[in-house]
Structures are given as structure tokens and as C-alpha cells.
Amino acid sequence: MSFFNSKGGYPMTLRHMSIFLEVASCNNMSIAAQNLYISQSTVSLAISEIEKTYKVRLFDRLSKHLRLTEAGVLLLDYASRIISLYKEMESALLGLHLKQIHIGSTLVAASCLLQDIIRAYHIICPDVSTRFTIDDSYFMEKKLASGELDVMLTETKGSHSSLVYTPFLDDTFVVICSPDHPYARRESLSIVDFENEMFLLREEGNSTRAALERALSKQGLSLTKSHVYHNIDALKEAVAENEGISMISKMLIREELSSHKLHACPVTDLPIKRVFYIVQRKDRAFLPYVKEFIRLCRETSGRRSDS
Fold first, then answer.
1. How far apart are CA 150 and CA 43, in angstroms?
2. Does domain 104-191+247-307 have CATH number 3.20.20.70?
3. H/E segment holding residue 131
4. pTM over 0.85
5. Where does CATH 1.10.10.10 sit in the chain?
6. Is the pLDDT of residue 96 over 70?
7. For residues 118 and 124, what is the distance between their CA atoms, to the nearest angstrom?
8. pLDDT in tens, 154-195
């Protein structure tokens, strides 16, 4: 594909832009050539053709590496968007036949939501295959913005300029205990009830633990006795065995509550909530089966808020 300019010269092609983007990424023509499996002379020629056509210099040649000029920075912005849009176009056209949706999700959102939504989605759209990327929200925002993902679920509202974050579900935290624990006879708890209780926590960096510790810190409190668990199932099992109490998303204990394996209590003076978001590209036209997935997410939100 070529893009001709009105003043003549070499036509700008997707290949020119791809080579330029690789050079800009590693600031070295030799390394760019290796990454693209082409010769260094081919890379140099592509950069030279762009520079001659538009009468600009794209890189300052320093001793051991290259540095983008003002023109290079400008081309980087446009070329990145053009290549991304081209890949998105290819993906959309292929998707008409392949019917595949690529969903991104944080581990928390996947644990709380994804299983039920996908089960319902495959009933409604049995001919659509699903791909998943489970990763940190920051990295998935980049994938979504570049067109690698169709949609993303997260509990973190980011600030990426090309993305739209739509809240669709509030998550509530409760304290859980064994049916044999004295608190199993209570309908609600207070922070003071944590005193002298063995509190079972997730590892450092876990979002639920961080939210709990922030809420306690605001009130000048901390947990005096605690054990750490790196696995949510092991933590729930330990609580069921009456080894301590814990705080957890209510979404993660639906089966245990229905089977009376665990008892849950809200904490009246320690309200901790989080919001789940559907994240989409601002400028992307969605295929019908992607719209159906988004609709199902919102429908699932309505069912859970009623339960």
C-alpha cells in the first residue's frame, strides 16, 4: 500500500512506516535490521527515501545511537496510528469470517466475573471463539489502544486518552468466618470486632489487602494477629476450618455461602467497595458479537445487583 505525495518523490508505504517504527523503537539501524530480518542497507534506504521525499531529517546521528528529530517525533505519532489502524482493519475484516473476540481482563476481574459471562456468551454466540489475555491493567491498556484486544475488564480506572472506561458493576467486601465461629450468629460487625481475632490475609500487593489496610490506616488502626495466604482457595478453606476470619469480595464466595460453608457479615464502619469497568477504544467500530459481549457484561451486572 502506497501513499503518494503531491510533490513527487518516493511513495510512502506501510513498509517504510514499519521500518521507521522499528528504528525509532531501538534507536539503531543495525538492531532494527536484525529484528526485521532484513539487511541494514535496506533499512538505511527506507529511511533515506522518506527523508529525501519530505526534505526532513528523521534522526540525529549520535556516536552510538540515533535520536528522533522534531520531524521524526511527528512521523512516529502518525505512523504508529496508521499501522495500528491498518492492523485493526485487517483484524476486523478477518473477524467477519473467523468470528473471534479477544478479551483482556485483570486477574481480579477474571476471578469475579469472567466465568459466568463467558458461559452465557457461548450459549448466545456459539460460533464465536474467545481468546483471553490476563495481565496487569497497565499493560492491557496498551494492547487495547493498539488494537490487539477488542475489549477489557478491570477494577482500575486508567487515564489512557484513547480509551473509554465505563463502570458497570460495584463490588462489595464482607468479613467471612466459619459457621462455628461466634460471629456466625451476627448480622453485621464493627472494626472493634477485629481486635484479638486472627485475620487471614492475602500476600503484599494484593488489591483486597491493600484496600483493607488503607481503610484501617485512615482510622488509625492495624491488625495485631494475621497469617498470609498466597492462594484464595487455601484462604477460604482455612476460614471454613475456623482458623481465623478474613475480608473478601462477596462475588468470590457465592458457592460457599449457598452451601453454608462460610458465613458473611458486612462491616458497618468500614465500607470498602470497588468498581469494575468495561474498557473500549473511543474510535473503534465494534462487530455485532463484540457488542453482544459488552451487553452481557452489563446484563450480568444487573442480575448481581439484584441478588
1. 32
2. no
3. strand 129-134
4. no
5. 2-90
6. no
7. 10
8. 988 888 888 999 998 888 889 999 999 999 999 999 888 887
